[in-house]
Amino acid sequence: xxxxxxxxxxxxxxxxxxxxxxxxxxxxxxxxxxxxxxxxxxxxxxxxxxxxxxxxxxxxxxxxxxxxxxxxxxxxxxxxxxxxxxxxxxxxxxxxxxxxxxxxxxxxxxxxxxxxxxxxxxxxxxxxxxxxxxxxxxxxxxxxxxxxxxxxxxxxxxxxxxxxxxxxxxxxxxxxxxxxxxxxxxxxxxxxxxxxxxxxxxxxxxxxxxxxxxxxxxxxxxxxxxxxxxxxxxxxxxxxxxxxxxxxxxxxxxxxxxxxxxxxxxxxxxxxxxxxxxxxxxxxxxxxxxxxxxxxxxxxxxxxxxxxxxxxxxxxxxxxxxxxxxxxxxxxxxxxxxxxxxxxxxxxxxxxxxxxxxxxxxxxxxxxxxxxxxxxxxxxxxxxxxxxxxxxxxxxxxx
Length: 399
Description:
This protein is α/β, with parallel strands linked by helices.
């Protein structure tokens, strides 16, 4: 399948330039500066033979909205370019991307080794639902490569991690885990939602597949739901024509693809601002007498600080913290902010504050939270684009 509109640009262009221009030629669409939004569910063929050839994969072109759309194709080419992958698939949500991946590439009797700390819905899928279909998930501490070695079995087909992890900001050594996974003959999947390809490029460090909740930083404005997978062309073709076309149907709308393309144009500027403000706020919070711990890879106190500096361009906009007063103090903090917004999700222009144990990670029961390593009192902050001094005054004042 082709996006039918790519122009040839130098390979040496910088990230921001590629995020704005790659995969689209205005002159191919009557000079339209932005890619048109193709609002169509199906596509006409010149002949029966052409239709048959497209369905067989023998000819380029679009056949049906569930497996391709010209607006979506521009986004997919751009995401693949920015992540350094051969191809990409855009989906209707991050969970849609993950389920397409699992249902397509795994079968009953296969095993996944996953890091012990994952986004709540990812954990829910792995712990509570995949076993019903005969897919076993082993959880291990992937911040220690020896933990992966111990968890691998002959049935392991996939290793999955986030880095930094949601919500407690653990950092996994992508290159070290990739080397072990490769020797085991499994696929290594990294959820790169927290970093985006601007801050971290897992494929260059040895990962096989990258996933995103594009709802977050890639979109950047809290106005859409979307996901993405970046991998080899062979894997993406399987996901598109099996995972999306036949299994979960989680296709992205053309308009949501258009909104993400808009978001990518400012991704570098936004991530620079998120990261710079978060780094200062993390230091402010760590110094406050009411705070027991701050988890942010940019702090010297973070256990994987040196690793984060090696594999991330900047430390991102996510902060986790615990207060000396525990959960009651955390709830009081959330109830007393004036600028930060009490809401889940992340990566928006607005600063968002939430309580993972009762919100985004409520799929973990209390015993599971204890086993997987995060506390009931943890508070997560997605640092937005507001002025630093205003956010500092808001958070410290609420404390």
